[in-house]
Amino acid sequence: MSELLVLAEIAGRRCAFRANDVQSVIDISEITPVPRAPEFVLGLAAMRSQALTVIDCRTAIGEDADAFPTDQRGAVVRVEGHSYALKLDMIDDVATARSAAGEIAGGFGKKWNHVACGMVETDRGAVLLIDVASLIEGPRETGPSGLS
Amino acid sequence: MDDLLADFIEETRELLEASEGEVIAWEADPRDRARLDTIFRFVHTVKGNCGFFDLPRLEQLSHAAEDALADVRNGRREPDAALVTAVLAIIDRISQMIDALDTGEDFPAGGDEDLIAALDDQMGDDITTSNEIAAIVEAADPAAPAGGTAASSTPRSIRLPVDLLDRVMSGVSDMVLARNDLAHRLREAGTQPTIDGPFERLTSILADVRDAVTRMRMQRIDHLFGAFPRMVRDLSKELGKQVMIDIDGGDVELDREMIEMIRDPMTHIIRNAIDHGFETPAQRIKAGKREIGLLSISARQSGNTISIIVSDDGKGLNQDRIGAKAVATGLITDDELKAMSHSEILQLVFAPGLSTAEQVSAVSGRGVGLDVVRANLEKVGGLIEVSSSPGAGATFTLRIPLTLSIIAGLTVEAAGQQFALPQGFVEEILHGDSAELDRAQLGKAAMITFRGDRIPCLTLADVLELGRNDDLGGGVIVILKLARGNLFALEVDAILNHGDLVVKPLAPSVMRSRTFAGSTLLDNGRPILLLDIPNIADEHNLIADASERAARFPEQDQADNAIQRADQAMLFRTFGGARRAVRLELVQRIETITVAALDQSTATPRAVVDGEILPLIGLEAGQQTDTHIRLLRLSDGSSELLYAVAAIEDAVTLKDKLAPVEDDPLVEAVTLVDGEPVVLLDGHALFARHGAVPQSVAGLTCSLPDSAWAQTILAPLIRAAGYQQADDPASADVAILLDRDDTPDGARETIRLRSLPDSQASPDEMKNSIYRYDREAVLRALRAAGRGEAA
Q1: What is the mean pLDDT of each successive set of 10 residues along chain A, which is 148 residues long?
Q2: Are B741 and B723 in contact (CB under 8 A)?
Q3: B466 to A46: CB separation less than 8 angstroms, yes or no
Q4: Cα Rg for chain A, rounded, in angstroms?
């Protein structure tokens, strides 16, 4: 249960990633936009000689991108051989998990359910543990956004 | 050969290492199907490879193990401890033999039979414990004491994990970026001789290293193809077949790792083709084909994939048999089969456990080959498909991605953003404001004129939905040519650079738009996207069928392809053995007719095709021995002409200069195709001299004598000559009478046959009738009747 978590904020909500999933935290400076890509794909950024796909976590979950400011830094994760940079509101701290990820009654809300691993208790309080592989898939297509 | 043997030893060792864990797991649970399959594939692969190297002992051992395991796979035998021990003993023996092969020692003779016997089902009754088997194994092991000490000789090459190569490669890329950054700063600081000298040296060393690292991973596919001619030769000899191999595209470069990954699949497919695809020479002649089968292998790079096409002109896949077998093995249900298309049924050959071969041979069979092939290819993100037409052969298309590849590319700009496109597609670059382009806007589509043809023109900013800038005509037109020869134009704002690009794969969410094939880093470290040209063309419906091979069967969708055919020609061999070409737009179809449909009695031979009489050229007397003749049906729109050919080679693009020929009126020019001279026929002269508007004979009818002989023997003959059978002799165009039948009233033409051979007939009978088995004379008479001449 002493798993390390990286605490962050997405669309104003406190959440966490498994420290094992996060390879590094980089400054995302220049982004090459990708025409015709889904909205949550901001573009490509370079990390050393590697191209990262930059994911806007707010739109990937289905939240409004304009309502929440983000900082320059992004978490680098690797899923199925591809590297992604996750653009977050902020990256906060590292904390130790005090419990395993668990469901909560009523769920986390329509948009958040599919990216959620569950709730985890930490020293800093309860946080939502994010499943990186689902996050980079983008929002579920469940009718017009803005509802729920 | 030594190289190949070394490869074989290395490969087998790797397989052994990889399957070691599987063997142990299988021993723990002999019913574990997945482990069983892995071990089965191992022995199958070893068996296949040994056949190629003349290693009879290894082959025997692996064949025996494969047999036993095949029984288990098919449920004919229950795996038990005794079987496991015996198989493991054989695998150990294979490993020892491989060690001995490597060090060049002779492996002590004997002992193999006992090991093979230990596999035997009956042994289970006599020897109940695996300990006893172990005793046999021990006794049968002459190399046991030496086994441990046989050290490998010094390796001539080393194998490196690909990860390590990747790290070195990305390290070098980083170094190049750091150098560029440094160069930028040095320029800003002004000339500093003490630093500039060493910096120049660093730059050139770095360029060398980068080149070397790049080559470390890339290899010409020749390296793989090089082994095939020998393999094809040996195999076809062994199986009593005659197969010629034709290899194309050996200069395509491929990731070394990828070459290793497709080695086995390719070997399997070729073995299958020779074993099951090609008929024996006798069967081929009977089927009207050339005695020697043609196996053609070609490789082509298109964007981010490499296509390897293996096609044979053998008997093709039997759709019914595949379907029936799939139902019989429970792979699909009868209803599912009924709902499947021809192509879907063919793809079932890649399902595990399906083999339609009637006999299991040492070469292939058992249905292991193709499921392994597909499994191996899918592991590296590749695809395999098969297409086949009965009697005409089968074509396997392998598509493998360039996970990491360096390609020559252009960097272009559109709407202020940079993109790369593979140089391989670029045919020509034109200035957008050139008057020659003769732009035309047709609805939403734009066309330009290129080399006299109108070709579609896309604007990159539109394709990418970036919003175009309005000052049209200031851009640059890139003429792109797709693998099938289709041309289209892409307008970009500017061309910035060209050079080698290291292409990296894109994340699935980006790939989904089907617009980009990968990403690459510019010298300044910025990532840019590589355009997926074939997909863009496909999305805009610029190609009829992107997956088919270059217009190999030109009878299909000729209207759609009229544009692309401008520079293409059909290459063929005449009966005299000469290599000729005719412009593809003249070729309407490829026909095969029987000799009976041929009339050589007049100065210009004629033939009946689809109920029409057409002039035929290209046939020299006495040169066709087959019962079938292949013809090119040429058309200029109204007139038609048949050209008899000994063999059709391919549709080719005429890239080289056409050198006009003055002394032969039927020849337009001589050109080079793949380095060999080819005579291009003059379509104008051909039609001027020989062309004719098709005459229909379909309306002509012929009545037959009322006898069983006429219905069974004569009827096919008149149909071949282009007549339809009529019941009433009075209304038929031609009435055939036998012996003393009465001439019917109203018959326009009559042909009288008689039962007596010429030698026994009276002069009067000779004059008025034809011996009923004198086929030539009967056909002559029928044709003369068709032309309206008296018989």
Answers
A1: 84 89 88 90 84 90 81 87 88 86 82 86 88 85 43
A2: no
A3: no
A4: 15
Residue B483: closest CA among B559, B537, B555, B556: B537
Has residue A123 been placed in a domain? Answer: yes
Across the interface, of A35, A45, A46, the residue whose CB is closest to B464 is A35
What does the DSSP 8-state code read for residue B737?
A: E
**CATH classification for the domain delimited by B697-786, as one of 3.40.50, 1.10.760, 1.10.150, 3.30.43:** 3.40.50
ipTM value for the complex: 0.87
A144 domain residue, yes or no: no
The string of pLDDT tens digits covering residues B428-466 is 888 877 777 788 888 878 888 887 788 888 889 888 888
B513 in reach of chain A (CB within 8 A) = yes
Q: Which two tokens stand for residue B614?
A: 């057409």
What CATH code would you report for B2-147?
A: 1.20.120.160
Query: Measured between CB atoms, does A4 come within 8 Å of chain B?
Result: no
Distance CA B319, CA B317 (A): 6
Single out the residue of B92, B106, B6 nearest to residue B49, CA to CA.
B6
The answer as to whether A141 is a domain residue is: no
For residues B521 and B413, is the Cβ–Cβ distance under 8 A? no
Interface of A with B in 91-120 (CB under 8 A): none
Question: CATH code at A41?
Answer: 2.40.50.180
Between positions 405 and 434 of B, the ones with CB within 8 A of A are 417
- Tokens 């900013």, residue? B461
- Beta carbons within 8 Å of B299's beta carbon, 6+ residues apart: B221, B225, B248, B249, B250, B252, B306, B307, B308, B309
